[in-house]
Write a structure and sequence with these properties.
golgi apparatus, 0% strand, 3 helices, coiled coil, Vps54_C, mainly alpha, protein transport, 109 residues, Vacuolar protein sorting-associated protein 54 C-terminal domain-containing protein, Methane Monooxygenase Hydroxylase, Chain G, domain 1
Length: 109
């Protein structure tokens, strides 16, 4: 059981890393802006949507950790889960900063 749980946790960590990385590149890196996607610019709605998706992941991670702690001893996989949590939190701060930089001039007037 613990081998399959360890594999599943590894896949979940990989999925979280991939989502975080791709959403960062697409939204903050503006890779989503192309003729292929049809986007001409990244809007505040796009930023807000990715922010909420990342916040949802941060809300889910403690439940994932709790589930796997019951199945696995402390291991490198839990360390990887902590590492991806830190990266997602950093990404959240970056998106919030971008939203703030867009909204500040509007509120100041």
């Amino acid at each position: 059981m613990s081998l399959s749980a360890a594999n599943l946790l590894g896949y979940l960590v990989e999925l979280l890393n991939t989502f975080n990385s791709r959403s960062f590149k697409l939204v903050l890196g503006a890779e989503a802006v192309s003729e292929k996607t049809g986007l001409k610019m990244i809007t505040t709605a796009n930023l807000a949507l990715v922010l909420r998706a990342l916040q949802l992941l941060l809300w889910l991670i403690p439940y994932i950790r709790l589930h796997f702690q019951a199945l696995l001893p402390e291991s490198a996989k839990m360390t990887q889960l902590e590492a991806v949590t830190v990266r997602i939190k950093t990404h959240v701060k970056d998106v919030q900063a971008k939203l703030l930089s867009i909204m500040e001039p509007l509120v100041a007037n």
